[in-house]
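User: Just a sanity check before I run the rest of the batch. Below are the structure tokens for the first item. I only need the designed sequence back.
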């Protein structure tokens, strides 16, 4: 401690004198006497220091206020971001509900046209590989389903049930190579068999003499006992007549978008 005072004796002395002068100046002020030369000297010497202290205090207070404002602004920003993410999530959910309601509304309108008992189901899995095109729905034998029942949507035919379990069923899509549906051209009543090509359909057994045109609508003929008559299968997009053979080559684009299937209808057996 002694070494410290020895090294800084001048600074310590100046501080002591300054403090003493301020104390003496304060004492004289309380007695309200005339301003002395000493007081004027002290006032002159301490005024810059006082101004510096005032500026320092003001700047420090302003800096602290700005710091507190930034902290509050950051917290508010975090809160608003969280609220924005929540609102975006709610908006997405509402959009999903709106789209689902639109799909279900179309299905309900289709039910009125079919005039046959139906069971709505959701698509829970799909198998669209190079060797099989099937989907799995969330209804099964507990809801009265069996193999062979047709599955449709408002846009057209989906396929038929080929396997059933208690709470699920596998549906063979009409685009599968092993699928065959008795069908006919709506405009000319030309009959044939719609067979799956993996993506599109081929109308087999359409005679070379039959009048077929691109955009003709292909519907189910009601033959075969699986699909009722009049369900939409798709539209003609290609017609080729070779030099030989009895039949035309006819390709059909399905009316059902199999890549977007979410809800379907199973046509149940008619109540007798």
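Assistant: Here's the designed sequence for the first item:
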């Amino acid at each position: 401690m002694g070494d410290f005072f020895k090294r800084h004796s001048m600074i310590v002395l100046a501080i002591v004198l300054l403090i003493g002068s301020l104390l003496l100046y304060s004492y004289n002020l309380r007695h309200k006497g005339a301003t002395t030369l000493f007081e004027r000297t002290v006032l002159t010497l301490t005024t810059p220091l006082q101004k510096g202290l005032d500026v320092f205090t003001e700047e420090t207070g302003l800096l602290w206020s700005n710091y507190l404002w930034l902290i509050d602004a950051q917290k508010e920003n975090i809160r608003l971001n969280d609220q924005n993410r929540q609102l975006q999530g709610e908006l997405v959910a509402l959009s999903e509900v709106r789209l689902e309601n639109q799909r279900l509304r179309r299905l309900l309108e289709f039910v009125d046209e079919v005039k046959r008992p139906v069971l709505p189901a959701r698509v829970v899995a799909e198998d669209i590989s190079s060797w099989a095109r099937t989907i799995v729905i969330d209804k099964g034998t507990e809801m009265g389903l069996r193999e062979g029942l047709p599955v449709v949507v408002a846009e057209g035919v989906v396929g038929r049930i080929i396997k059933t379990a208690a709470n699920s069923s596998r549906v063979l899509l009409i685009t599968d190579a092993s699928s065959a549906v008795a069908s006919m051209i709506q405009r000319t009543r030309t009959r044939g068999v719609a067979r799956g090509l993996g993506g599109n359909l081929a109308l087999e057994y359409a005679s070379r003499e039959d009048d077929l045109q691109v955009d003709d609508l292909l519907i189910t003929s009601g033959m075969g006992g699986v699909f009722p008559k009049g369900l939409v299968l798709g539209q003609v997009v290609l017609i080729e007549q070779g030099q030989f053979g009895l039949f035309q080559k006819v390709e059909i684009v399905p009316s059902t978008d199999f890549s977007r299937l979410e809800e379907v209808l199973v046509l149940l057996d008619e109540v007798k």
